[in-house]
Inverse folding.
């Protein structure tokens, strides 16, 4: 099996000494010094910080500076050892991964990136610890990385030769019955809210807000995703069609910016930065230390419809897809229904839908016409397994003990000694743990495709795409059909406005396991490259009917063309202005993040002006392909890697 080559060269660069020492100001000497050709320091450089400097940082963070171990390293020497075998078992537990500063849940992406540990981590316990790490990185020209949940498919939460701000220990949760953002001068009605530390994950949030308090906070579907990272990327959960994105529920955030200041941001205080944090990309504008989110009323029921239908022929599958999109338009295109339909290459329509505020009787009533249609054609269709149609009390949706008592085996559990009883993740998310991505693309599907005269076209495109790769339509990740309040709240975020008029987000991806260099556990590079080509062909069938749909930043192609428009549409110019205001020297770098155009792929070498606006190109570069339709900036230089797609 071929070994995976590095994405970038391993040259060890020097760096000019950073002269900025004044916390809370932008030193013009530093701004000038971080120009074209500037290189961040690596451990083998002569001007890497001295042991004495690291000791001073350790004192500043109350002894919470730790060398970062890489658990996989022992497997390079002997993959058959007991320690390595134990690791290969533990690494499929997302709670174990989350407790390791040197690991990320995604281990890499073929021909793109490989998870590598930082040199040191500040295991932050408060915003002052984060500020000390930010100041140290800025003053010593270091590559800085921020990690909470560590779920990034793009590898944005780790970087070799870097200093890591690790927020895992910052997981305090506080409920508020009458929250008013700081700095408000009247006009703000107190409301119910929850404040969560940057290291909290969504299972902890749901346990506190829903299971224990009988309320709801809009968050992510995957229980082990970090709260702060999801909000900064936009954030969708199973019930987003009703409540809007997680970013839309942000009321206030505490964030450490590149100058080392701890800032409060809300709609009245640092309002431009607050807006950017609502979907502008995690780890791009600063290191968030805590977020306060709106808490909602909990409905009586949440439920599901799980049905798997196998078609006997291609023609029968075409008819099934045409019937389903019409059925969705008539019965499911509203804020009650979320989650996804999976359209497979072997002619299976696999439906895993969840519903908001519908009783079991109502769920069965809604789906009966679909089941009747399938039953009338027994030679063409087979329902595989027993359909599941029904609801449960919403308060028990994430209640692990209740699920056990009612024989609902929907969670995998952390079986480590001393693990919390609520350390659980959905069984359906197990495949994402310690995977190595082959390819991944997304595309927002506009609601206009559900017009009666467009249903045939939509069904044909779905069938054509499924000949190359399986397609998932995530209905909760498109807000069309949702309440006006949810749509308007999401409009006031940085997320691509295409989400507002989309009925679903189409996702196509593939992955394997393993890690490069571990004998017997290496990724299948050839299979990965083939899968990436098939994924691209599949999504191109959808792009034929959605040429400017845009993509979701957290679930997209590492090699995304014109990512500025694909991720943020007409919002990109405004985001670039915020980036240049709060981080003019590019201390916070993430792959395909706002302002990253001016840096090498690893974030170590400055290759252009520090100001993102310098990259604006009114003429456009690719005729609008993969761009959101908008009336704002018409084009941006695409950051496109010269690799086969």
């Amino acid at each position: 099996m071929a070994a995976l080559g590095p994405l970038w060269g391993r040259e060890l660069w020097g760096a000019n000494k950073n002269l900025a020492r004044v916390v809370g100001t932008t030193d013009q000497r530093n701004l000038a010094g971080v120009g074209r050709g500037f290189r961040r320091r690596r451990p083998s450089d002569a001007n890497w910080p001295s042991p004495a400097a690291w000791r001073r940082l350790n004192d500043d963070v109350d002894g919470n500076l730790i060398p970062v171990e890489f658990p996989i390293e022992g497997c390079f020497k002997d993959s058959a050892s007991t320690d390595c075998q134990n690791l290969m078992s533990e690494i499929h537990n997302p709670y174990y991964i989350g407790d390791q500063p040197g690991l990320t849940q995604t281990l890499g992406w073929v021909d793109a990136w490989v998870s590598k540990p930082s040199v040191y981590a500040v295991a932050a316990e408060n915003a002052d610890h984060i500020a000390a790490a930010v100041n140290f990185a800025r003053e010593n020209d270091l590559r800085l990385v921020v990690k909470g949940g560590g779920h990034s498919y793009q590898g944005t939460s780790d970087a070799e030769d870097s200093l890591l701000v690790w927020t895992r220990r910052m997981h305090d949760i506080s409920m508020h019955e009458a929250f008013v953002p700081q700095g408000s001068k009247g006009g703000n009605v107190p409301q119910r809210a929850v404040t969560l530390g940057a290291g909290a994950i969504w299972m902890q949030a749901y346990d506190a807000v829903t299971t224990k308090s009988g309320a709801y906070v809009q968050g992510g579907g995957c229980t082990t995703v970090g709260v702060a990272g999801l909000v900064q990327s936009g954030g969708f959960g199973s019930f987003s069609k009703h409540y809007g994105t997680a970013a839309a529920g942000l009321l206030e955030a505490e964030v450490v910016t590149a100058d080392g200041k701890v800032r409060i941001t809300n709609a009245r205080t640092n309002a431009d930065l607050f807006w950017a944090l609502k979907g502008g990309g995690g780890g791009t504008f600063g290191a968030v230390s805590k977020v306060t989110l709106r808490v909602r009323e909990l409905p009586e029921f949440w439920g599901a419809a799980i049905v798997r239908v196998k078609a006997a022929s291609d023609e029968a599958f075409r008819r099934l897809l045409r019937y389903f999109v019409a059925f969705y338009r008539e019965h499911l295109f509203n804020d009650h229904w979320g989650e996804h339909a999976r359209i497979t290459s072997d002619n299976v329509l696999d439906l895993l839908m969840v519903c908001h505020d519908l009783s079991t009787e109502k769920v069965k009533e809604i789906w009966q016409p679909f089941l009747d249609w399938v039953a009338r054609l027994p030679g063409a269709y087979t329902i595989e397994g027993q359909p599941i149609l029904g609801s449960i009390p919403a308060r028990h949706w994430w209640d692990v003990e209740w699920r056990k008592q009612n024989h609902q085996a929907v969670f995998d559990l952390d079986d480590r000694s001393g693990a919390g009883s609520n350390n659980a993740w959905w069984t359906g998310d197990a495949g994402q743990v310690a995977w190595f991505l082959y390819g991944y693309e997304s595309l927002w599907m506009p609601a206009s495709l559900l017009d009666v005269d467009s249903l045939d076209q939509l069904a044909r495109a779905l069938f054509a795409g499924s000949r190359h790769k399986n397609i998932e339509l995530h209905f909760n990740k498109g807000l069309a059909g949702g309440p006006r309040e949810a749509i308007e709240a999401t409009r006031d975020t940085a997320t691509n406005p295409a989400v507002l008029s989309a009925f679903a987000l189409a996702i196509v991806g593939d992955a394997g396991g393993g890690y490069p260099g571990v004998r017997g556990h290496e990724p299948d590079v050839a299979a990965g490259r083939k899968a990436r080509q098939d994924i691209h062909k599949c999504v191109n069938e959808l792009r034929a009917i959605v040429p400017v749909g845009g993509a979701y930043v957290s679930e997209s192609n590492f090699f995304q063309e014109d990512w500025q428009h694909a991720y943020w549409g007409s919002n990109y110019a405004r985001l670039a202005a915020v980036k240049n205001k709060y981080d003019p020297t590019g201390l916070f770098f993430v792959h395909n993040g706002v302002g990253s155009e001016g840096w090498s792929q690893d974030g170590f070498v400055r290759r252009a002006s520090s100001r993102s606006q310098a990259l604006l190109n009114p003429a456009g570069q690719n005729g609008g392909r993969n761009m959101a339709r908008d009336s704002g900036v018409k084009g941006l230089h695409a950051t496109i890697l010269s690799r086969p797609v």
Remarks:
- The chain has a mean pLDDT of 90.
